Amino acid sequence: MLEIETKPEEIPSSWEELDLSELSGTLMVVGSSDVGKSTFSRYLFKRLCTIYPRVAYLDGDPGQSTLGPPTTMTLAMAENGDNSFPPRGRRWQAFVGSVSPLGNMLAVLICAARLMEAAQKAGAQVVIYDTTGLVEAARGGIHLKLAKIDLLRPKVLFALQRNQELQTLLLPLRRKSRMLVLEFSPSSSAQRRDTSVRKAHRAAQFAQYFTNSSQLQVNWPQFAVLPAPRFNLHRLVALEDADGFTIGLGIVAKIDRIYRQVVLHTPVDTLNGVDVIRVGDLLVDPVTYEDSPLTRKY
Fold it and tell me: 101 vs 12, 67, 128, 184, CA distance in Å?
């Protein structure tokens, strides 16, 4: 489990005045990068845990993930009023295969739907969905957010914005009868992070995740390899179970194309339960754990 760095957080009075007693179902949090979506989502989570016995938190940002390693989306459950963060209950992960939703929007939607279904089956009474910061219309952000809303039908949409940057998204949604839109200003403690800071954060997360990893040999014809067995040195892959949830990640360390074998650098020590090997679009250096895209699609 990844450790969550805790810092003093300034909670705006508008957040504290929010009445959560009637809120249930899916609660989606949207906003651009670095407006404090995760801070707000954790605040909601901790308060809702005092109201409901089963609360789920869906970390939906594969680039600056909170609960799992980069390239994944993670659902975690809290039960019986335990509002510890990270949640200490059951956990599911799904592999997006990249640290950006750009070029991977279908994967993001599939992972979100799969994790939401897991939350419902586990009896979650409320799910907080902390989404990515991609909101720019020109990059497909508005279409992605609308697709999430149409797919998951949240009861409440919490929107955090600094300078009316969400108005293109919110203007039509305010008229929806089946969804409440609540708008808030970010916490003053929210700070902008440049690309180098974000990349260093991912490297630290990968380094922590792959601590105590060893080498695992895989005969890939024994498994479904999706989308295709195009292995590259240092390419990131996911080992998935029959339900499509991630058992663990691996970095390709060796490739034998004659015998169709790969050796993975991974914390997973057995192939028991593995049904699918899903190949990602990211290279991860197994020494520095810095990532780079396999191909630049944009």
Answer: 30, 17, 19, 24
Determine the residue type at 137. A
Helix (H) or strand (E) holding 97: none
DSSP lists the bridge partners of residue 93 as 74
CATH code of residue 238: 2.40.30.330
Cα–Cα distance measured from residue 218 to residue 222, given in angstroms and rounded to the nearest whole number:
8
Tell me the pLDDT tens digit for each residue of 51-80: 999 999 999 999 989 999 999 999 999 999
281 lies in which domain range?
208-293
Residue 9: the pLDDT is 63
Specify whether 121 is located in the same domain as 75. Answer: yes
Which value, to the nearest 10 degrees, does the dihedral of the CA atoms of residues 88, 148, 94, 196 take?
Answer: -90
What residue type is 267 in one-letter code?
Answer: P
DSSP state of 137: G
Cα–Cα distances in Å, from 93 out to 159, 243, 261? 25, 11, 26
Percent of the chain with pLDDT over 90: 78
- Is the domain of 88 the same as that of 235? no
| Residue 16 CB neighbours (<10 A) | 9
Q: Which two tokens stand for residue 236?
A: 């990131």
Residues 213 and 137 in one domain: no
Q: Are 289 and 198 in contact (CB under 8 A)?
A: no
* Residues with pLDDT less than 70, the chain: 1-9, 190, 296-298
> For residue 125, which amino acid is it?
Q
Q: What are phi and psi of 101, to 5 degrees?
A: -70, -15
Question: Residue 249: exposed, middle, or buried by beta-carbon count in 10 A (0-12, 13-18, 19+)?
Answer: buried
In a domain, 289, yes or no: yes
How many structural domains compose the chain?
Answer: 2
Residue matched to tokens 């407006």: 35
